[in-house]
Every structure is written in structure tokens, then in C-alpha cells.
Amino acid sequence: MNFHTRKWIKPEDLNPNGTLFGGSLLHWIDEESAIYAVIQLETRHVITKFMSEINFVASAYQGDIIELGISATCFGRTSITLGCEVRNKITHQSILTIDRIVLVSVDEAGNPSPHGKTHVTYESDRFGHAHTGR
Question: How far apart are CA 134 and CA 125, in angstroms?
Fold first, then answer.
């Protein structure tokens, strides 16, 4: 699993118990999943269709740095299925896991659209070694 996104837990991210508000975390996961799908499927037209059970394992507190990990587990004809883990950056303690997040490639009318992808690709696969990062 690749952990690319990090968040610093700030006062505005907390619930009345003083821990990370689950809604904020789910917002970040949905956004990160969509970005991952857009890059893998090479289309900006993706929607979140499904999230399996969300397992809150531990809490995060103000000042904690967390990281979101996403990995592709399956490519369908119009979909991509991802797994997610959120963990404390310093201790690596798991905070949340989601086994399946399904995103679907859609056409201009919002209908499922085949994406033609079958496996994970990396930036170097798509752009070659001449890519400068711009």
C-alpha cells in the first residue's frame, strides 16, 4: 500500500470528544480515492459508487500527523476497486481501514464507461523517463 497523502490534525478537524471527526476523515479518503482513480484510469470522469465497511480502529488527536494509504485491488470493465488504510505517521498505528472502495468511470451523461485499464500503472509507465515532473 502506498501512503502518499498526509494530514495534520487541527482543531477544526475534531469532534466534541476531542478526537478526529470521522466525517472529515471520510471526506479526505473519498477525495484521495478519486484522485487515485483519475490517475490510474486516465480520466477525470469518475464517481464513487461504493464503500464497504468502514472500520475505525483507533482515534487521532489534535497535533497528530496521519497518512492515507490507497492501493488498487481490482480493475473491472468500468470500475476500479481500491483498499484504504489510514495510520498515524509517527507510530504507524492503524486508525481506519476500508477493504473496498469502488469508483466507476463515467461518460459525459454520467453513464458507466469502459476505461480499458487492467492493472496499476506508474508515472514512469505513462510518461517515460523523459518526464520532467511539470
Answer: 16
Question: What is the secondary structure of 19-43 as a DSSP string?
Answer: BB-HHHHHHHHHHHHHHHHHHHHT-
- State the pTM of this model: 0.88
CATH numbers and ranges of domains, the chain? 2-115 (3.10.129.10)
All 3 cell numbers of residue 40?
490510474
Residues 15/21, Cβ–Cβ less than 8 Å: yes
pLDDT-derived band at 4 (thresholds 50, 70, 90) equals: confident
Question: Sign of torsion, CA 60 63 64 66?
Answer: positive
Contact 29, 68 (CB under 8 A): yes
* Assigned C-alpha cell, 8: 495534520
